[in-house]
Amino acid sequence: MPRVVIVGGGFAGLNLAKGLGNVADLDVTLLDRTNHHLFQPLLYQVAMAGLSPAEIAAPIRSVLSRYRNVRVLQGEVQSVDVQRQCVCADFGEVGYDYLVLACGSRHSYFGHDEWEENAPGLKTLEQATEIRRRVLSAYEEAECSTSPEARKRLLTFVVVGGGPTGVELAGAIGEMSRFTLARDFRNIDAASARVVLLEAGPRILNMFSEKSSSRAARDLEQLGVQIWTGSAVTKIDEDGVEIGNERISSATVLWAAGVKASSLGQAAGFEVDRQGRVVVEPDLSVKGHPRVFIAGDQANFTHQTGRPLPGTAPVAMQQGRYLAQLIRDDLAGRTRKPFQFVDKGQMATIGRSRAVVEGGGYKLAGFFAWVIWLVVHIYYLTGFQNRFLVVSKWAWSYLSFRRGARLIVTKEWRFNAPRERPAVPETTTRS
Amino acid sequence: MPRVVIVGGGFAGLNLAKGLGNVADLDVTLLDRTNHHLFQPLLYQVAMAGLSPAEIAAPIRSVLSRYRNVRVLQGEVQSVDVQRQCVCADFGEVGYDYLVLACGSRHSYFGHDEWEENAPGLKTLEQATEIRRRVLSAYEEAECSTSPEARKRLLTFVVVGGGPTGVELAGAIGEMSRFTLARDFRNIDAASARVVLLEAGPRILNMFSEKSSSRAARDLEQLGVQIWTGSAVTKIDEDGVEIGNERISSATVLWAAGVKASSLGQAAGFEVDRQGRVVVEPDLSVKGHPRVFIAGDQANFTHQTGRPLPGTAPVAMQQGRYLAQLIRDDLAGRTRKPFQFVDKGQMATIGRSRAVVEGGGYKLAGFFAWVIWLVVHIYYLTGFQNRFLVVSKWAWSYLSFRRGARLIVTKEWRFNAPRERPAVPETTTRS
Q1: Residue of A76, A90, A140 to mutate, testing the B interface (most B Cβ within 10 Å of its Cβ)
Q2: Virtual CA dihedral for B399, B403, B405, B410, nearest 10 degrees?
Q3: Residue A108 burial (CB < 10 Å; 0-12/13-18/19+)?
Q4: Considering CB atoms only, which of B52, B123, B143 is closest to A52?
Q5: What tens digit of pLDDT does each residue of A323-343 get?
Q6: Which chain A residues contact residue B399 at CB under 8 A?
Q7: Looking at this predicted complex, what is its ipTM?
Q8: Phi, psi of B238 (to 5 degrees)
Q9: Quick check: B93 and A431 CB within 8 A?
Q10: Which partner for B130 in A293, A413, B318, B410 could form a disulfide, CB atoms 3.0-4.6 Å apart?
Q11: Are A155 and A174 in contact (CB under 8 A)?
Q12: Contact B144 A92 (CB under 8 A)
């Protein structure tokens, strides 16, 4: 029985596994280092306390449990041996006849990995919870502080990177300060928080048209976000960021700039581009390995437009479904057709009730674009329960201006462990 | 303007702050080391993946934001200075005219603090998430393992302590294995998981009648839980537990045995009992300090029954409300009345749809008791949103046998950090 091994339970891997579910005489194994599929387009909502982790994540094994020929194993794949046709995971080896790597991407700090400590990125639930902790703790510490400089630093938030994630994060912080938190503090004015969005290029959302990009910039500025374009970060430390000679003093810096692909492709000896993505053939296979495929963020597919396809959910989903069909065709002795991406457009949201949407010749902005954004995202959320709960929660947040998940959860679960709390420099006295 | 300082935002502190909200000419400060009030009676549901943290926790400052005279500060109180009338927190000092300590309790390992690493207790959201991670990870590792001994160890769960929390945890693990997870695994039979509940005394739920206690034991056994009474733990390590000469090999041990009060009362020089609870006067004040009060789990109040009141939510809520009235009486020049606890009964739940309820001469068990348990708990959940979402989620879980929050979230948010995964001893090979 042919064995298909899929590494990664993201949009590509999950759609592939579903497409191969209950195919007779096929043994499918999906490996992932976490136990959950993550709906990444809404991850910023977890970071911004609008949603709980469980609302945008579903256990992979539960999503796939109805397919009796699919096995899910939680483990980290450490290497691929194309000669022996097996992958080596932390618990042991798994042999394959067909292998699909769909391991996604992670943040790239452009050679400055030491920045991660002070500027977390947003790719996993753990990172989202950490960002939430930092943002909410900054307000809490500002409330306890009496030094104007410390307060200013604590209430300054810097987001690095003007792509969709950066725009969504900056918009959400701006909105949270102005609406959600405004009434809750006594010593500070939460609405006076400063949010700076740094973009190295000439404009934010550069994959959109200039018109949509400037509309998004205007919407962000209405939420109090300052946009600095042409501002490449040169240093990040615990006190803030530097852009050449300028310095912004900030306790909370978030990273939404570059990404690089999983290193597994390069380690296997495949041809990769500068971002670590594996260069693939028109059928997503690796040159010289017709039964090894790459999908999603990890693939560099240039055969359609001459440029690599972007690392987005629609690309990954279509590639996953395409590979399921390809493997079924292979087994049935049919010839392979090349992958063809159907571009349905792109979208980004700015706070509640504003978005920009583009595709197929149309451009939309404002409330109606946001409704489209909302419908599309809810439609694609995996599993009815999540969809229903997310809709309830959003309806509630929208009507009440509250955020339901404003929890600061630390990393430490033991009582006697040292508590992590960045020291507030001065001692304050109240009487 | 008199200053009231409340330490702790649990049931006692929150009810007290609400009772003093918008009282003219009163300045109220509530200090807590977390930013959220936690509905502890449902914490085991978070540990058992039935609920998300945000559904049983609400930001204290959001709950109290409507009271303009109440200020909430997140900080850890390190000491109390009754001479200078101030508390010393990590961010500075806060002076008081009235002080109420309601800092709750934590787990006690009876002098074996080293057990905590291998047997986490359940008092905070962080601990609940950690327990969830351990329990779910045990199944995941068992699925990847091929050694029968390793699998057996991984699928054996030990709960230490036969009080309500231990009973709820053991019941929920038994139920999760038999119903929720049964279909999701391919290599292991999740339903064969072994759950052992250890109780040092002669019976579980010893605060209930013998009849209710034995009914609960029968219900637990139907869920596959083995109950070992008269079994005091003598050792816990990473491979399991020892009870005298006997040894249970288990990868997941949970602690629900003893508690001890916050050490703040003892450190302040107040008279405490063996569990660290401060012995209080009939008006909950500390002897010799008529304006310093203790409430909730931290208080040892014996004036009503001759024995200390139990550390439960109803006691804490009533004490909080009582102290609000007492302080208002004080300010108005009225004499203080002693605290009087109104006992409305007690309850414990065993899996879905079974519970035991006792009080005021009535004893109930089974489905109807569970409905009462459900209604009471939903009624007391703070905030409409949570209540509504929890009801939706429960209705869904009940009808579908699914658990919505089955996420394994690790403590590490950085990509390059070493990944925590207990090594599975043997290397397995699949082909």
Answers
A1: A140
A2: 180
A3: middle
A4: B52
A5: 999 999 999 999 999 999 999
A6: none
A7: 0.85
A8: -70, -10
A9: yes
A10: A413
A11: no
A12: yes
